[in-house]
Every structure is written in C-alpha cells, then in structure tokens.
Amino acid sequence: MFGQLIKNTWLLEVVSIITSCVAFAAIIGVLFHFDQTPVFDWHSISLNTLVSVLSTVTKTLLLITVSACLSQWNFIWFSKYRRPLIDFDVFDSASRGPIGSLSLLWRIKWRSVASLGALITILSLAIDPFVQSVVGLEESQAHSLGNSTSIARALRYSKGSMVTYETQFVGGQDGKTYRSGQTTADFSLQSAILFGLSSSRSSISQQTAARCSGAHCKWEPYSSLSICSTCNNITNQWTMTTTNHDDNPIFPQWMYLDESTGTYSVGGEVTRFEFSNGLYIDNTTEDVSLVAYSTTKRSQTVTFQQNKLLLWSLTTIRRLGDGNSVNDSRVLSAMECGLMYCVKNYTSEVINGTLYESSESLSLKTSPGSFQPLDNPSAVDPMPGQLNSVLIFPRSDLSLGGEYNISQLAVNGIGAAMIDVFSDPLKSTFYNDSGATGYYLGIPGTNKMAVPNSMQPIYESPDLDATFTNLAMSMSNSIRANDDNQALVTGTNSITIYKISWPWLALPLANLVGGCILLAFTISFTYRQSIPIWKSSALATLKVGAAVGPVLDERYIDGMEKQAEKTSFTLPKKPDERNDATEGLREAENLEMQTPQESFYNLGRNEDEESTSNVIRSFRGHSTM
C-alpha cells in the first residue's frame, strides 16, 4: 500500500520538499540563535558542522523533488505536441545531474517549466559553499567575570608617613605655635618620581595597574584622581640688570681670557637675569649651564601663584650657548613647570598585552571645606600659600568635585618627596647664593656635575614639557594603584563571536522556492493533461520506447542521436487513440505511443527473430490465462 502511494502519487516529493523547507527553516533558526554569540564547540560539534548537516538534508531532499519533476516533464513535454525524439534523451539526462541540466537549458531554453528544474539542479552545486559562507567570525567585547579585566583608579589617596618632633615648635601665620614634624611619601610614589624622570612615555604607560585576560580589553571612559603638569616659557619675564665693579673689586666679579695676550683678566661688569622668586643667572661663572629653583609654595613661583592645587614647581634658567655671551639674553631660556592635583578622564585599551591610554584633565574645583583646619575651619590658615606643611595640625581632605580626595598626610608626603628629589640637600653656595636649589655644571674638558642628580635629566631634556608630562603620568600611576579602597574599573574582554552574513542564504532560499514552484507546476500539468505519474520509472521509459521500433536500430549512440534528431514523437491522449498529426508520415519520421500489446507486436525483427517470436507467444499465452 505504502509502495503504491510512493510510486503512483506525489507523496514522496511533497514530503521531501516540505522536509527540505523545514530543514532550511532550522538553518535560519540556528543561525538566528547563535548570531552575535561566542563561538562554541560541543563535543567537537561546531556551528559549521550543524549547519552543514542541515544544508545537506535541505539540498538532498530538494534534488529528490526536482529530479522527479524533471523526469515527469519528460512525458509532459511530449503529451501535447510533436517533439523531436532527441528531447526525450535531453530530459532524461537533466533528471540525472548538472551536465544533463546544462544540455536541457541549451536546447530547450525557457520553453518549458523544466528549465527551472535544470537551473535549480545546476545552482544546487553552490548551496554548500554559500551556506558555509553564512557563518563568519568577528571580534567583540564582553564583560568579564570578577576582576579578570580591570584597571586601577583612585578616589581617595592617603599613603605616606610622618614623624613628630615632640620638642620642636614652629609658629604659624595665625600667631599660634605648632609642633613640627617630618613627612615622607609612600615608597612606591618616590620610585614613581625617579621612574618618570628616567623612562620613556611608552614604558611609563605600561606601569599602570591593569589586568587583561585576553588579547584585547577595553574600558569605558572613567575618571581618577591624578597629577597634571603645566610648563610655561618665562624667558621674557626676567629682570636684567648690569653692574660695573671696576672701581670696587668685590664679588660678584668674573674672569675672562684675553686671547690677544693669552692672560686672564678680571671683569667688573656683571649682567644678571633674575626672576621675582630670587632665581637668577649671571656671567660671573660661565661653567654653570642651568640653575633651578624647586618649591611647594605658590608665592615663590612666577606663574603659579593663583593655582591652589599646585603641589610643586620648578623654575629653570638654561644657557643655550657656550656662555661666551652670557650678557646676551638670546643665549638663555627660562621655563617654569608645575605639578598639581587634578582629576583626569581616562580611555584605556589593551591590545596584545600593550596598554594604550589617553587622558583629559577635568576642570574640577575644590569642594567647600576642602583642606581646612579641622579644629577651627573659620580661623586663619596657619600655612597659607602652600599645600604641604611641616606644622602638625589636622586638616580635612583636599577634595576635588566632592568625590576625589587626598589626605593631608599624602599631600605633605608628596610635597616633601618633590623637594628631596629636586633640591640640593647641602644647600651649596657654589653658585654665589643665586637662590638656586639645584644646578648643572658643564665644565669644558672635565666631567659634568648635576646637583642634585635630578638636574641631569632636567638639563638634558630636549622637551621639558614632555618630561614633566612623563613625571606626572608616572606619579598618577602610583596614586591610582594605591587607592585606599583599591578601586577598580571593570572592562570588557575580546571574544570571538559568530557573525551571520544573511545575504549568503539568498541562493539556497531561491532554490527552495524554485523547487516548490516547479513541483506545483509539475503536478498541475500532470493532472490537467491526464498524464500518468511515471516520473523516473525505467519501465515507463521502456513502455514509451517500444513505440520507436526500428527507428533507433543503430549500434552506436551517435547514430541513434542522429536518427532521434530527425524523428518527431508525441504521446497519445488515450492508449488506442491515433494522433491525426501523424497521418501520412513514415514511421521513422513521426511516431506516437501505442497500446502495450501493439508496442510489443511492432518490435523490429533482428538477427534473433526466432527468440523474439517466442517472447511474443509467451506473452500471449500469459494474457489468455
């Protein structure tokens, strides 16, 4: 019963095309589900494997339907009009694969719906690569669990230490006497100061406390307590004075070489370039290449007197030439650079283990009550004009924007650390008490000397602004890494996800729609023209072929094809009905299908004629039983 349904109806083809559509819908569902999701590998089964299996099912069931339709069109094609017999071979070949389908398209063109089936058969060769191209991969960012992807930020910093002198008292500007003490910055920050002076910016940036569990990590912009730097060119802000000491040979005076006589002479005219904070340089000593003044007091700076967040400033005067024309201001340059507390907005990214970071300073002002004496906030500040102090009296935190804070202990410690690094601890009078806390000597023919040692990178720096930027960055890294609460910003880590390219499904979808249309037209033409459902049955082909008789009585295929080209053929509407269109034509030129008995009667005689007669007699005997 089931076998009859399969052979005599379109049940198999209908079920096949429906199942093919379901498999294709499953492909779409699977791809939609896994689009933009991380790549998976479940027991060695990947998404590509799953899609490939469904694609094979889709294509196989589609071709089952298309092949059956093409075979049926072999009979539909000859059911109404006389057609060249060679077309029968063309349709049969088309139902077997792409090569035959090409022949059908070439010969039939689009004169038959079967051409659609041939086109589907050919295009089905590309279904697998098209479906495989649908699944692509791309990098995406996903939030990591825990702190596997994190970077440090600072909301409050209070590192440092202090020693109080029990018997030493110092008077403040409020008229009171306070116990004094010595503060020290945290060791990591002291190290950061030296590292910032001696390292490149790329090396400093890699010292940021960041964790990245993959090859590419990103963080949304975030803010942190930091150190900012500013440098100003103050070359034209000095005061130049000239004094002649010929009549009063006392210091300062200088010696110069008289090249005409080869002797040294004492000159009494001294040219001095001096700033308001007391730092100056003159021509009494040509060997001094740089003088610097380090301070934490705003009032002792040239350009930072109104900056209430200044933690330290360095004023420098540098000789540009060999000093022979020191009285000419064109051979001198002066810069003043300062560090101040600030809040920066950071954008961070790690690519293959390298941190890339950009920052922008935010314009946040101190909060009300910031850094005020706790005992009496409304009283006169004992140490105005500077943040750090040796006086022991409690202050509130230095607060920026109400969210970012640094303790009094940290402020005092950082200020003390900057003075220690950039000031001569022996307070040398080598350079005539010029007000300098540091200098760099460039004595011709002898070794160079920097006092303190930090003056060497300051003097040798080709870009002092960049040097201070590096210094501020290094100190900021230390502050961010040592936040009181170990504040962290969690980021995203790179993962590989599926990227579905939906346009690649256009071809498989078009093939599937075409298969449905082909099946519908095939069923419709079959029933409208009362054609038996023979499809690809070999017996049906033999049944039709019996009508050919001696027309194809050739030994080789090329001979049969030549005969088939010259022979027209049609199927009768009824088994014993003759087609008027064939009347008057020779049998080899115009054939029509005959009844089963007639087909066998008209078999051509060949060399084994007797054997053929026996077959006919046997058939007749079987029929009468």
Describe this protein's structure:
The protein has 625 residues and is α+β, with helices and mostly antiparallel strands. The protein folds into 3 domains: 1-138 and 498-537, no CATH class; 150-490, no CATH class; 546-625, no CATH class. Helices cover 35% and strands 25% of the residues. The strands form 7 sheets. Strands 2, 8, 9, 15, 16, 17, 18, 21, 22 and 24 form a 10-stranded antiparallel β-sheet that branches. It has a 3-stranded mixed β-sheet with strand order 1-25-26. Strand 21 (438-441) and strand 22 (449-451) form a beta hairpin. The two termini are 26 Å apart.
From the structure above, extract its key features.
26 strands; disordered C terminus; elongated; 625 residues; 17 helices; alpha+beta; single chain
